[in-house]
Automatic annotation (TrEMBL):
The lineage of its organism: Bacteria, Pseudomonadati, Pseudomonadota, Betaproteobacteria, Burkholderiales. It holds the Pfam family Glyoxalase. It comes from the Bacteria. InterPro entries: Glyas_Bleomycin-R_OHBP_Dase (IPR029068), Glyas_Fos-R_dOase_dom (IPR004360), VOC_core (IPR037523). It comes from Paraburkholderia sediminicola. This is VOC domain-containing protein. Residues 24-142 form the VOC domain.
């Protein structure tokens, strides 16, 4: 079963006073130590689609027309904060629990550095793991489409 992406996945720019008016956030970038090892983890464990487009980099995506470049930097890799993480949405709490179990099962195989406990916080049931490149990933279940709710609720503070 595939979760359907809402027909209204594209949203209009609401900041009409912006100096620049890009139409979509198209990509991001992160670092990896070794392309082959990281790409295998992304494809086999995280379930991401990857394509190697350059000698020192590959791109990955999942579900939307938004991609992230992963650039090989070798031993110059930077540790990142737990708050700087990438979210992977799953369809149920049971899928979060299954991902949690598989993270522990494959921790040594994929060189996963850390795994947090599952928790329910701010309406999201999730856990985090830190990969071999110090990047943090959150496997989460949220009832609905979180992006819609966050922006529909508007500013709170």
């Amino acid at each position: 079963m595939t979760l359907e992406i809402p027909d209204n996945a594209v949203v209009p720019l609401k900041n009409s006073n912006a100096i620049n008016r890009p139409y979509v956030l198209g990509h991001g970038t992160l670092e990896c130590r070794d392309i082959a090892e990281t790409r295998r983890f992304y494809e086999e464990f995280l379930g991401l689609e990857t394509v190697r487009h350059a000698a020192p980099a590959f791109a990955f995506r999942l579900g939307l027309k938004f991609h992230v470049f992963c650039v090989e930097v070798g031993d110059k890799i930077h540790d990142v904060s737990f708050l700087t993480h990438w979210g992977l949405d799953v369809r149920s709490r049971e899928e979060v629990d299954a991902a949690y179990r598989s993270a522990h099962e494959y921790k040594d195989h994929y060189k996963i550095r850390q795994i947090t406990e599952t928790t329910l916080q701010h309406g999201v049931y999730s856990f985090y793991l830190q990969d071999l490149d110090y990047n943090w990933w959150e496997f989460q279940y949220y009832e609905g489409f979180q992006d819609e709710d966050i922006f529909d609720f508007g500013d709170r503070f």
